Amino acid sequence: MRAVVTGGAGFIGSHVCERLLESVCDDVVCVDNFITGEPANIARLTGRAGFRLLVSDVVDGLEIDGPVDAVLHFASPASPADYLRHPLATLRVGAEGTRHALELAAAHGARFVLASTSEAYGDPQVHPQPESYWGNVNPVGPRSCYDEAKRYAEALTMAYRRSLGVDAGIVRIFNTFGPRMRPGDGRVVPNLIRQALEEAPMTVTGDGSQTRSLCYVDDLVDGVLRMLGASISGPVNLGNPHEVTMLELAHWIRRLTGSRSAIVQVPLPEDDPRRRRPDIALAAAELGWQPRTPVEEGLLRTIEWFAERRKGAGVLAEV
Ligand code: NAD
Ligand code: UDP
pLDDT band at residue 314, thresholds of 50, 70 and 90? Predict the structure, then answer.
């Protein structure tokens, strides 16, 4: 099998490339323009037989020589700090980038998997969130460049499936964490770990009572590969239902790192969702999937990776 992974040099995409080569693929083409990804994420793969890196912006087009059996479309800024810095690039990759990835799948008769997001539910009024919930998104707020781009990408994916018969599926990914998150990407897990390791103030937004449900990256990738091997359209939620408040998370990370950092309150960003937890009954029924890594174990592995990186670089860069 030969797969094309857009955004393959990013946090999740690099793990996807690696797992594909370890399991079902002889060849993986990683397409990335490095807007938020890093060459270091794919350093272990570069030069390895069957792996090819194409430095390219999927907004400009996506042409691949030779056969293509699978297209996994992961290209998009994903951290709020990143997409607020790049709102137009985020809208373009969700719209034109997704169209190009779907065209590639259509031309080759390939299976297509879209990396969508729990942000499709916005600030949810239904809890936990099943796939049947249509969401509560502010279409003109600061986060809309990401949320609406992904909702459009979902609509486009379904239209290609319905009208052109593309074997396309959608996964809605909930907050995922693990090694290779950029320490300065602004998301809560890398921020809190970096701050804890540096004995700097640990920032919790608002009163910290808002919740997220955190999934370790290896489990998430397992779900993505199962979706690749299926032929259903979804959307299917992939996430760990273990829900925590952000204040609890800060205390948890402080304990696991043995840090003496103070936990400080900073302003809550506009339209920050109050709570989020996936209903994963569909993933269990259709894909036989559920997360297996306890959040604490995932946090320990991530902390270890950040500590190693800090040892190497001397400092963990901020946003
Ligand atoms: P990331 O920023 O680490 O990775 C995204 C990758 O896409 C980067 O390598 C970036 O350079 C690349 N990219 C962006 N625009 C591109 C373009 N126009 N052309 C080529 N490459 C481009 O983010 P991530 O956390 O790994 O997220 C990967 C995907 O999963 C995204 O589509 C994101 O929306 C989705 N997702 C992630 C999470 C999460 O918790 N990490 C949650 C929901 C959805
Ligand atoms: N957050 C926080 N401290 C930080 C960064 C983020 O408390 O240093 C909060 C953020 O406001 C949100 C939650 O943590 O309520 C998750 O934020 P993240 O950016 O990781 O993901 P998303 O908002 O996209 O779920």
Answer: low
Q: Where are the alpha helices (DSSP H) in the chain?
A: 11-22, 80-85, 87-92, 98-108, 144-164, 188-197, 217-229, 246-257, 281-282, 295-313
Which residue lies with its CA nearest to atom 15 of ligand 1?
Answer: 76
Q: Each residue of 206-251: pLDDT tens digit?
A: 999 999 999 999 999 999 999 999 999 999 999 999 999 999 999 9
The CA distances from residue 264 to 10, 59, 267, in Å, are: 30, 40, 10
Domains and CATH numbers, the chain: 2-178+215-241+273-292 (3.40.50.720)
Strands 243-245 and 211-213, bridge-based pairing: antiparallel
From residue 242, alpha-carbon distances to 183, 300, 306 in Å are: 23, 16, 23
- pTM comes to 0.97
Catalogue the active-site residues: 146
Q: From the CB of 204, is ligand 2 less than 6 Å away?
A: yes
Q: Could you give the ipTM of this predicted complex? A: 0.99
For residue 268, report the distance from its CA to the centre of ligand 2, in Å: 9
Q: Return the closest-CA partner of residue 157 out of 172, 140, 143, 142.
A: 172
- DSSP symbol at 200: P
The bound ligand whose nearest atom lies closest to the alpha carbon of 184 is: 2
Find the ligand nearest to 268 CA: 2
The verdict on the CB of residue 15 being under 6 Å from ligand 2 is no
Residues 6 or more apart whose CB falls under 8 angstroms from that of 58 comprise 6, 31, 33, 73, 75, 93, 96, 97, 100, 101
Q: Is 191 in the pocket of ligand 2 (CB under 6 A)?
A: yes
Contact 61 CB / ligand 2 (< 6 Å): no
Measured CA to CA, the distance from residue 48 to residue 17 in angstroms comes to 12
Q: Do residues 168 and 161 make contact, with C-beta atoms less than 8 angstroms apart? A: yes
**Rounded to whole angstroms, how far apart are CA atoms 284 and 290?**
6
